[in-house]
Amino acid sequence: MASTFTKEHGLELESPTAPPNLHSTVEDQGLEAFKDVTFGSIAGIIGKVIEYPFDTIKVRLQSQPHPPVFAGPLDCFRQSLLSPEGGLRSLYRGISAPLLGAAVETSSLFFSYRIAQSALQKSIPTLPQVKGEKLPLNALITCGAISGAVTSLLLTPIELVKCKMQYPVSSSNLTTPAPRGSISVIASVFRQHGILGFWRGQFGTLIRETGGSAAWFGSYEGVLIALRRSSPPSTHPSPDHAENATTSPLHHQLLAGASAGIAYNFAFFPADTIKARMQTEELASSSSTLRSTTAATATAGGTSPRTTFWKSGVELWRQQGLKGLYRGCGITVARSAPSSAVIFTLYEGLREWAG
């Protein structure tokens, strides 16, 4: 990527694009892993604080029953601000789990991305083996997909707690007995479904993270390459040099990061919509039961059977069509551009500062 994080013998190695030196010591690898985890966590947490209110609106739009109770993002935002628990408190409800999730997700993505490059480089001798030389774009996209698949296993439990806490608590449209605190939600999930219950919606997360991370890193790398090639000849005298340049201007990093965020969220958004509905279906079912005739049925535990990813997707398509699969996509893409730009730029800046 854009900035360098180590300098040895006059050569510079990029982060997170360039893989680690094939002959580096265990201490060096440990230091790089520490940087990935620490700087990725910081960047992810700051990005999450910026985007969280928009993410709350997205989840509420995705998980609302049929027929929809919100006319759109602005109506959902207005009702959230007017909710009994208070505007900002409602929009930031449940942020503790997402902050942890953002730290885990971003650090895991950057760490797995770098390790995947090293593994791919070792397994395919025809790939560049020189320290600091970037892999081809298609190889970087593959590494992005691998990093997303690994990260999905860590992210699903955190997102399940987040979605359950973001589900709206409202006396007018959606009434739900959802627990308020993250500890209550965790205890409830474990009590009802055991440890495997935390991976409810894993298939949707896997699809979103694998494809989305390939698009995330691929878009970032591709846009940077295109911007370097379009730079004045005095800056990058040859296309080859442009592709392997070790630094990029700040505005290039911001533009590439914003493009990456848009690509990540738009490409596999339906998988995220289905996942969100699966992870909140018990709350929606309980809400519908409370609004129907007998509260005794809810007390007896009368919730609808848990559906599979495929069945949930088919049901959503039958009820709301393509619009339902992309409900909340606009606000998600709008908030992902600045958030992703901040994440990449901050991560790169911390890497460069650390030397």
In short:
The protein is mostly helical and 355 residues long. It has helices spanning 26-63, 73-81, 87-91, 96-123, 137-166, 182-193, 202-229, 239-243, 250-267, 269-291, 295-299, 309-325, 329-354; strands spanning 3-8, 11-15.
Question: Which descriptors apply to this entry?
Answer:
mainly alpha, two-stranded antiparallel ribbon, 13 helices, 2 strands, single chain, 3% strand, 355 residues, globular
Classify the beta-strand content into a percent band. under 5%
Estimated radius of gyration = 22 Å
Q: What general form does the structure show?
A: globular
N-to-C span:
15 Å
Compressed to H and E, one letter per element, the order equals: EEHHHHHHHHHHHHH
The overall strand count is 2
So how many helices?
13
Q: Pick out the low-confidence regions.
A: 1-15, 171-179, 235-245, 288-304
Summarize the main sheet: 2 strands, antiparallel
What is the residue-averaged pLDDT? 78
- Helical proportion? 55-70%
Strand order of the largest sheet: 1-2
The secondary-structure class comes to mainly alpha
